[in-house]
Structure formats: structure tokens, C-alpha cells
Write a structure and sequence with these properties.
This protein is an alpha/beta fold. It is built from 15 helices and 8 strands. It starts with 5 loop residues before the first helix and ends in a 9-residue tail after the last helix. This is Plasmid partitioning protein RepB. Belongs to the ParB family.
Length: about 325
Amino acid sequence: MKKPDGRGRDILQGLVAAGKPGRPTDGSLQQARPSGAVKAMSLGLDRLSAEAAQAKALREELANRETTQELDPALFSPSIVSDRIPSTSDSRFQELKAAIAENGQQIPIIARPHPSEEGHFQIAAGHRRWRVAQELGLNVKAIIRKLTDQEVVILQGQENGPREDLTFVERARFAMQMESHGFDRDTLSAALSVDKPEISRLLTVAQAIGEDLIVAIGPAPKVGRPRWLQLVKGLEQSGAHDALHKLRASSEFVSADSDQRFALALQAVSPGRRASKRRPASSDRVAWVEKKGGNIRLVSDNAGFASFLQRRFPALLEEFKSSPEAKSKKTPKGATH
């Protein structure tokens, strides 16, 4: 009997195997893939999750985005620390005012929500633009940020510092005011972009001169550190403060610009210059008047005139007592009775 052909058996086994579920040859199980409704639901959830993440990112971007607003200047108040000294003869302010009147406000001011007044704002940078808007009757363009006190003064100082927009004495006064508000030297250095030794020098000048006299003189844009140091030294002289007090009440000081006021103040406290002397205009005059502090002196280098005056003095004094001058003016301090 003929043996069965092995090839037929192999073919039969192949057909049987083809009808059975396939099994992985490496012993691992394949994960079933979702299909139909399950697959559609999974894709939908993934899409919703991605859209939610995008929406959150958009909300954060909108919240952080700085937008310029046009607001009523009456809603704003100055910074907690003043850097500029008010001046009626500020040519730079007048130039800025003319530019904004012609072209509008190009650069917005920066402010924060007022820490104690709901619906109001406190300026960190752009005080002059705010003043211009007030004077021109315009709304002020502003960017509103959430800022701490420290961030306010640093931003305020750095806005002006790089442009060298503050005069020497304004920088010194700004440092003094920041320190009086409790800010540390690191903050002062950051606001003025200088090192701590320079901060010490600025404070020395500002504290020696004082807020009152600094404001009275003004920003003095043409006056640098050396001349302010001369004024500090002059203030150490006896009678210097009295001389300045009288000077500030004079029409000459009031009508002068800031640089001229500084020159007058320096002259008033300089040694040997505080005496205001009226010397004879011609050779036939033998006496002149000197004013020093609150005293008035009649000075003569002519011995004959001195003897004459001494002899006639009692009669002159009686004549003075009955004159209109005696009734309208007080006798100068130190005068002889």
C-alpha cells in the first residue's frame, strides 16, 4: 500500500490554521483598538481638553496684556515720592506741552491702582505728561499696572535716569525723599542707577541744604555737584542762614530764574561776600554804607569826617527822631542810640 503524500497533510494543516484566530508568535497579547462610537468619543474628549487649555492660555494672555487707556487726569495723583522740583521757568516742560498740543500724547504714562482711593490711580512715570494733559484739558493716555511701592519708585527713577532728565539737586532730593519714606539703599541705587557711595554723596548734599531751601532755589539745571558743595560749605558760616532768609524775601530773588537764585544764594553765604557795600562813586565822597546781616554801618576812611560826624551826631539823632523815617521804619538792629 502506498504511503500518504506528506504535502497533502501540510496543505490540510494550513487550511485548518487559517480558520482559527491568529495568535502572536512572540507570546505577547495585542491591545484591541477602539472603533466606532468609542473611538469618536475618545477623539472628542481629547479635542475638548486641548481647546480648554488654549482658552486658559488666552485668558492669561489677555489678563497680562498691557493696554493703553484714555482717562480723566482728575483720576490720577502723583507718586508717593517726588523727583522733580516744581519750576515756573521749566523750558523743557513748555516744549513738551507744545509738542503734545500739536501731535498728541505719544507715550502713555504708567500708573497703578491707587492704594487707598477706589477708582483712582497713582502715577509711577509720566508726571509731566499728566500735567500737560491737565493744562490742555485732554484725557491722559495711561497704562495701568499692579505695582508695589518699591516698584513705583524704581520705575519712576529709571524713567528719568537714562535720559539724564533730572538735575543734580533733583537727584539728591529724590534720594533724600526715598530714604525718608523708608526705602533702603539698594532701592535708592536701583532707582537712580548709581552705586551706594554715590547715593551717600547725594544724601549728604540734600540733607545739608534741606528740602525748604532746595525747593526755593529750584532745579538749577546749569549747576552741578561742585557748586552745590560750595553752598553746603557756605552754610556752615556764622549768620549764613539769616542771610539766606533775608535774601529769599527780596524781590531780586523772587524774580530770578532757578540758576540765578542759586548764584544769589551762593553769594549770600560765601565768606567775605555777605556784606553788601555801597562805595563812593566819586572822590568827593568820604563815607559809604555797609549792610551785613541785620546791621547797617556807616564807614569812612577820612579822619576829619569822622570827627565832624561825632561832633554833630547828637543833633542829627534829634533831627532823625522827628523825621518821617523814624516813624515809618524801625531802627536797625545794632544802631547806636
